[in-house]
Amino acid sequence: MKSFRKELWFNTPNRRDYINITSEVEACVKESGIKEGLCLVNAMHITASVYINDAESGLIQDYDDWLEGLAPHEPISHYRHNRTGEDNGDAHLKRQVMGREVVVAITNGRFDFGPWEQIYYAEFDGRRRKRVLVKIIGE
Ligand code: ZN
After folding, report:
1. Structural domains in the chain (count)
2. What's the pLDDT band for 58 if we cut at 50, 70, 90?
3. Pairing mode, if any, of strands 118-123 and 48-53?
């Protein structure tokens, strides 16, 4: 069995950003040379997510509005976590809802996606360098 590991780095300009990373992760699959296997993609930080959904117009803003409704960033004092001096209590909750990782099957050297599936990195406490892990195993 072969294995491949790579870190993708991000430094988003905004506190919250949603980035389609499908082509970057596909490049990892190509680089790995693995034709049949599994690809894990996970956020390495507890205030960011990796998820799969459509690249359809309006959807990212809908996610952001929905998450802000569930766990608004402000007022910062609303979160017990922020009594530590941090201001990212909302980001921890948003990450929990959107998840830590995705696993995608690789068949014939390509992602075996369902219709319209795309891989996204969701940042909830950005404006600093953060990482996503790509781990691929197979033959
Ligand atoms: Zn925190």
Report:
1. 1
2. very high
3. antiparallel
pTM: 0.96
Q: In whole angstroms, what is the distance from residue 114 CA to residue 68 CA?
A: 28
Residue 124 CA, ligand 1 centroid: distance in Å? 11
Measured in Å, residue 89 CA sits from the centre of ligand 1 at 6
At residue 45 the predicted structure's pLDDT band, cuts being 50, 70 and 90, is: very high
Q: What is the pLDDT of residues 25-36, one digit of tens each?
A: 999 999 999 999
Residues with CB under 5 A from ligand 1 (ion): 86, 88
Domain that holds residue 93: 2-138
The CATH number given to whatever domain includes residue 77 is 2.60.120.460
Fill in the DSSP letter of residue 78.
G
125 CA distance to ligand 1 middle (Å): 9
What whole-number distance in Å separates Cα of residue 80 and Cα of residue 46? 17
Measured at the CA of 119, the angle between CA 113 and CA 124, to 5 degrees, comes to: 155
